[in-house]
Design a protein that fits this description.
This protein is mainly α. The protein is built from nine helices and no strands. It has helices at about 5-10, 15-25, 30-45, 55-65, 70-80, 85-90, 100-110, 115-120, 125-135.
């Protein structure tokens, strides 16, 4: 973590869950941002996540590459309404686009990352498009 985020986490009431998630293998910076920025922002919108323990499953599935970072707030919103994360992902609306489908989207948009992200930011990681672009 950078110094600012480290200080913020040390003062946070979410420090125990942060430590638990990092021990489980989640990216410390992503966990800190999710706990201290994303959850606060969602709370202001009236979306309260009652059980922070579901974040373990969220970060475990993220680590497996099942969805992109930009989808985290949307997944948390749905989870706050009582939907299990596995069900949210099974329904497929927020799953990561990869493989042939990603290649077709990239080619159809001339590998223009800005244009692709405008339409697919919740489904495509810009790094994946960059890798495809380098291969071509």
């Amino acid at each position: 973590l950078n110094q600012e985020m480290a200080e913020k986490m040390l003062r946070s009431r979410n420090l125990p869950i942060f430590e638990k998630l990092v021990v489980e293998g989640a990216d410390p910076m992503l966990v800190a941002i999710t706990l201290e920025n994303t959850l606060v922002s969602l709370r202001r919108e009236g979306c309260e996540l009652s059980d922070l323990n579901i974040l373990s499953e969220l970060f475990e599935k993220y680590k497996k590459g099942l969805f992109v970072k930009a989808a985290i707030p949307e997944i948390i919103k749905l989870a706050s309404k009582g939907k299990p994360i596995s069900q949210i992902l099974e329904e497929g609306s927020l799953c990561r686009i990869t493989g042939a489908e990603l290649k077709k989207i990239a080619e159809d948009n001339n590998f223009d990352i800005a244009r692709i992200m405008q339409k697919y930011r919740l489904y495509i990681d810009p790094k994946d498009v960059e890798l495809l672009k380098k291969k071509d």
